[in-house]
Amino acid sequence: MKVTSMLTQNPLTPHAHDAPVSPLERLAPNKLILGLFLPMQEGAWSPSRAPRSTSWTFDYLAQCTRQAEDLGFDLAFGLAQWMGKGGYGGEMHFREHELDPIIVNTALAAMTKRIVLINTVHILYAWHPLHLAKFGAALDHISGGRWGVNVVTGYKPSEYRMFGLDMIEHDLRYDMADEFTTLLERLWAEDENLTFAGRWWKTENAFLAPRPGPRRPFLVNAASSGAGLAYAAKHSDLIFITSPGGAEPAKAYETLPPVNARIKDLAASLGRQVKTIINPHVICRPTEKEAQEAYRRILEHEDPVAADNFVQTFVGGDTKSWRGHSRAQWVIGGNVHLVGTPEQIVEGFVKLQAAGCDGVQVNFFDYLPDLAYFGEAVIPMMKQAGLRT
């Protein structure tokens, strides 16, 4: 049942200095947005015990972010999670440790100058829009307009129970997110006390000073369901998408065009423009043989208990994303697997862009050395291919 709140019937009232343009216009005019998924969780995306240096510690995250900025990356992105003792289990206690991304981004904002910093917030886990509006305004000022929030409603019953909450039905979560985000945007935009009673949130004489400016922060979400896409088309600037065909590149190139077209058509019907971004796991080596050996090494050293638990979390819930991925593809991690030489990686990026993706948010297995080689060998070829300036 579709629920409409008093708030969503009340249109935003932008402040006079806020022209109706997307914050994405602040990014450099590249044909393909380039982002880095930071390894804020222990083990990052791969429940594998193969040797690597990847770490969730702040010093490591700072090194990754500053190196990405030096290489010209547009975005650095941090997930959020709420896990019990042992994480997803196994010998490696996969993802047990994590630094909170909004705190990490506050520190990274003071250590960087250009890269956009985006972090996830589970807005239905007892947040009030005024909290996020105030924290976001502060981060916007600290970063010089380089901060954004990935709005997540949550899909794990265990996480809801941690906050003493009952699981919320899938589509209702997006009705609630619509009200939350609309109020959030009003708090960022209006220059008077704001009072209102919605279905789920109320506020009386709420006011922010300072507000973000001259543009509101970036709004991001991941969506694949009808309710999620409707929310994204209305609110988000950048939308994370998944390949319906799984992580095999050829199937991704085939199945992604209608996904991208649907999202952009929905946004256009509301008079908005949005950009889509997808998450490739990049394994790049000087030869294809070396890259494939690195791929097999990750699989051969999987932590079976951690992998089983990791997969079951997604396939056992009500999220509509990731349904086309096999267990082995989950062990590698990432949404599309690009494995090969620098030329092959760039060819994959070209095909993803041709399929309608506006950006790639890459992750690696062994972050710092893999990122260094990516900068040395892949980025120059991306420029030659016209993907980057």
UniProtKB/TrEMBL annotation:
- Top-rank lineage group of the source organism: Bacteria
Spans annotated as Disordered: 1-20
What positions does the domain Luciferase-like occupy? 35-358
Write out the entry's keywords from A to Z.
Answer: Flavoprotein, FMN, Monooxygenase, Oxidoreductase
- Bias category Polar residues: which stretches? 1-12
Q: Which molecular function terms from Gene Ontology are attached?
A: monooxygenase activity; oxidoreductase activity, acting on paired donors, with incorporation or reduction of molecular oxygen
**Matching Pfam families, A to Z?**
Bac_luciferase
UniProt xrefs under SUPFAM superfamilies = Bacterial luciferase-like
Q: Know the name of this protein? A: Luciferase-like monooxygenase
